[in-house]
Amino acid sequence: MTDTHAISGIHARHQAELDRGRFVIQRCGACHQHVYFPREICPHCGSQNLAFVAPQGLGTVYAVTTVRRKADAGGDYNVSLIDLDEGVRLMSRVDNLAPGEVQIDQRVKARVQLIEGRGVVMFDAVQGGAA
Fold it and tell me: How many CA atoms lie within 13 A of 73 on its CB side?
């Protein structure tokens, strides 16, 4: 298993922002596309002109599955693919609903949760439900 504290470069800068409670993605200064997970080179145009920006954080559940665990191991949880309105997709969880209540096309909002001092992007369902 890799020690996340040993990660350097762009990934360390991204994690440092999360650890401060700030969710950031990248935006290319050349082609203006958003990028997530952080990279050194834009996957759309090859430019190295990538900067961290704060997304609005709104998105839509693209896919969801429930991971089953015994109650003494923490209970069931969902794993969701979220399409941010900025055009990037990431894997996370919708945290404010029971795992079986998370639905495809449901609108969600990102937030950073600190777990043992490390920032993790989580989502909450937005009032009003589907996109």
Answer: 6
